[in-house]
Design goal:
The protein is α/β, with parallel strands linked by helices. It has 2 domains: 1-51; 57-193, NAD(P)-binding Rossmann-like Domain (Rossmann fold). It is built from 8 helices and 7 strands, in the order βαββαββαβαβαααα. The strands form 3 sheets. A 3-stranded parallel beta sheet has the order 1-2-3, covered by helices on one side. It has a two-stranded parallel sheet with strand order 4-7. It has a two-stranded antiparallel sheet with strand order 5-6. Helix 1 links the parallel strand 1 (3-7) and strand 2 (27-32). The radius of gyration is 17 Å and the shape is globular. The chain starts with a strand and ends with a helix.
């Protein structure tokens, strides 16, 4: 079965998605924010990683390096709208991909940097170098007990194709995801409102 990364996995939708994908036999990695309430993931047998790229940028940790690869990125509001559209207009038994924009990691980090006023990514890290760094960070993690900021699994995941077509959802559901930068901006404003930066 393919490996799947679920971001926002401690939320209502994310935690239920993790459990369901696990039941279906997928190898699931659940990404949660540091200090998140993990009650919804109780009994989840997959891997849980902690991280928040936006928060790291907001805390002044500039993300300038990036690895080759990319992923399909979508705002949670668009996923919710798509799920409701599938309920109302979808064909029973049909599957719809509720994605957004297929972005390289450089493009994604660049959009985050643009919103928060940070420096855009400028250093492309070769995969051999990322693998080497991940091995060292994992070794240090085993000595310190602190989770590594980069793992070999992250590097492997970055090399896998994570781009998806949403054409069926557009055609059959009228699904129209907003630009990803709008979701990034909304997240940033949430951090500001809640005095997290």
């Amino acid at each position: 079965m393919p490996r799947i990364l679920v971001t926002g996995a401690n939320g209502l939708i994310g935690s239920n998605l993790c459990h369901k994908l696990g039941e279906l036999g997928y190898e699931v990695t659940a990404m949660v924010r540091e200090g998140s309430n993990l009650l919804g993931l109780e009994g989840f047998e997959g891997r849980i990683v902690r991280g928040d790229i936006l928060q790291k940028i907001l805390n002044g940790r500039r993300i300038t390096p990036y690895v080759p690869g990319g992923m399909c990125v979508v705002g949670v509001d668009d996923v919710v709208d798509g799920q409701i559209a599938a309920l109302e207009f979808g064909v029973t038994g049909a599957r719809y991909i509720l994605g957004g924009e297929n972005l390289t990691f450089k493009e994604l980090f660049g959009q985050i940097a643009e919103v928060v006023g940070a420096s855009p990514p400028s250093i492309r890290v070769p995969l051999w170098s990322a693998r080497w760094a991940a091995a060292i960070l994992e070794m240090l993690s085993s000595l310190t007990g602190r989770p590594p900021v980069l793992t070999k699994a992250h590097v492997v995941s970055a090399t896998l194709p994570h781009y998806f077509s949403i054409e069926r959802a557009k055609r059959e559901l009228g699904y129209k995801p907003r630009p990803v930068i709008d979701a990034i901006r909304k997240s940033y404003e949430w951090y500001l409102r809640n005095n997290l930066i």
